[in-house]
Design brief:
D-tyrosyl-trna(Tyr) Deacylase, Chain: A
Length: 458
């Protein structure tokens, strides 16, 4: 057995691509408790999106699979003879799914709720209340080069349209600057400083940068020349304001006059005058939110969960509160978090650092939880779904691995479960960072390792 273990590890340690990488590996038979293989299991490394396991596991255990995020319509002032002498508020509680992929039919239900309340005119404004979180929408531990991109959006108490806009460009002849045609959805007041070159290339090399609340977005890089129209995704500067603007438009189109333009609140004020609840919108259940988070590695969803959990400590929620809560949550449950570094909930922060043993301990707890079935369903499956669709496809391990992946340049990480033919369940974490090669090649080596371990221990 010892020779088999050494052979398996050497696939990772002896390969010139991964041998000198920052690595932590642990494979354990969860059914029997036996250790299968390991290499520096207590060594902490950046987990990339495998970090989402800490976030989604804590959210599932803390909130339960049926939890639904409320978004509350409230009004200040009084309703007299069909006129609201005050403002209509949309108060957010970190739901990441409002308007996801453009699905905003819920706005019609909101308009109908206003109508049923007897309101025919609003002598104020629709106001987006984002004060459940502090104003630090962009995690300061993320790289500046990520800010403004669709995969690193600002996180607010009101999130909308996936906090993403599609910037439609027109490509021209080589050497020219691409033309900005429009955004989808249309965003009022956004201004682009455009430096996107049209070049003789075959890939999309355009980048978006900017900060939350700012109306400026910088477009840089290059795109193929003479390509026609194409889209570049960036973040929405202020999703809550856009939601309030869309609701204002829907109300006016339905014959309900709104006197003032939409606006927003970003700063928490415990002395805010009382409001009256008008309608409560509920998100899809947490079980579905977790699937989107883990299967498609959705950073917005993960970070919204992370930020929301921090509000359990105090209001407004802060990134620091969320970091403390996540660490304390798992530490109290026996997961060794002593050497872990937690900076965010999605894994974008390069300072995040977690060991393979920590992930194996967490995964073992979740597999024995009352929510184990929901947890397993939230994870992609090897060779079949989500970010694991190419892992072990067409091999004996296709369909046998439920795991979370993490990918950045020179990094490929996996942590999850392997269902063995004899009914045993293995739990594993393979974290490989700073390898001098592409993530796709690193995955090929990890796949070879997994197959070797699997075949050697059937």
């Amino acid at each position: 057995m010892l020779n088999v273990i050494l052979l398996s590890v050497s696939i990772l340690t002896g390969n010139p691509l991964t041998g000198q990488a920052n690595m932590s590996v642990l494979v354990r038979n969860m059914t029997t408790g036996a250790s299968i293989d390991s290499y520096r299991p207590d060594h902490v490394v950046p987990p990339a999106s495998v970090m989402k396991l800490l976030t989604t596991g804590a959210a599932l255990e803390m909130l339960g699979p049926g939890y639904r995020f409320p978004t509350i319509l409230e009004y200040s002032g009084t309703i007299e003879n069909g006129v609201l002498q005050g403002d209509l508020y949309v108060r957010g509680t970190c739901d990441p799914s409002l308007g996801w992929k453009g699905r905003n039919g819920f706005l019609d239900r909101w308009v109908e709720a206003v109508r049923k309340a007897g309101i025919r005119r609003i002598n104020g404004a629709v106001i987006a209340d984002m004060t459940m979180l502090d104003g630090e929408a962009q995690n300061p531990n993320w790289l500046c080069e990520d800010a403004g991109n669709y995969y690193a959006p600002g996180i607010f108490a009101l999130n909308y349209y996936g906090n993403t806009m599609n910037i439609v460009l027109q490509s021209g002849e080589p050497g020219s600057v691409a033309t900005v045609l429009k955004t989808e959805p249309a965003v009022e007041g956004v201004r682009f400083i455009n430096r996107v070159r049209c070049d003789k290339i075959t890939y999309d090399g355009a980048f978006v940068s900017g900060l939350p609340y700012s109306s400026e977005r910088y477009l840089t890089g290059a795109v193929p020349s003479d390509l026609g129209t194409f889209g570049v995704k960036g973040d929405l500067p202020n999703p809550g304001l856009l939601l309030a603007q869309h609701l204002t438009e829907r109300l006016r189109n339905a014959g309900i006059a709104v006197f003032r333009d939409a606006t927003y609140l970003a700063d928490y004020n415990p002395l805010t005058p009382p409001r009256n609840e008008l309608y409560v919108h509920y998100s899809e259940p947490l079980s579905e939110i977790l699937k989107e988070t883990n299967v498609n590695s959705n950073n917005l969803y993960a970070e919204a969960l992370f930020r929301y959990m921090g509000t359990r400590y105090t209001l407004p929620g802060t990134i620091h509160n969320s970091q403390d809560l996540l660490r304390d949550f798992w530490q109290r449950r026996g997961v060794n978090m002593g050497n872990a570094i937690i900076k965010d909930g999605c894994g974008l922060a390069p300072q995040d650092a977690v060991s393979a043993r920590t992930f194996v301990q967490l995964l073992t707890l979740m597999a024995r939880s009352k929510n184990a079935d929901v947890w397993m369903e939230s994870l992609p499956v090897s060779g079949q779904t989500g970010t694991l669709k190419t892992l072990c496809a067409g091999t004996p391990l296709e369909g046998r691995i439920h795991a979370k992946s993490g990918t950045i340049a020179g990094t490929k990480n996996f942590a999850g479960y392997i269902d063995m033919p004899n009914g045993d369940k293995w739990v594993f974490a393979i974290l490989i960072n700073s390898a001098p090669g592409k993530a796709k090649r690193i995955q090929t080596i990890i796949q070879e390792y997994l197959l070797d371990v699997y075949k050697s221990h059937q």
